Amino acid sequence: xxxxxxxxxxxxxxxxxxxxxxxxxxxxxxxxxxxxxxxxxxxxxxxxxxxxxxxxxxxxxxxxxxxxxxxxxxxxxxxxxxxxxxxxxxxxxxxxxxxxxxxxxxxxxxx
Length: 111
Prior knowledge:
alpha+beta, 5-stranded antiparallel β-sheet
């Protein structure tokens, strides 16, 4: 995972939702919530919070956290849910960096 990024995990037991926060919201930012659950094998469970215009990744929202946790620990045989979340976040950060980089073969992505 990239050095200097602090991940904060906040679990709400009443709603069974885990909030994974990387950065605090900045004043004037427009946050879009994108569902990525289908792409990573958790349909309808995982959403990312991003500011598309500024290209800032604020964090994740994991719905049905107990089901997510169970699948990570048992089906994917991860030893630690925290390590799995860090791996997911670092993979998303790397993917966002790659997708937003313009090359001669691929122009910069626009939303």
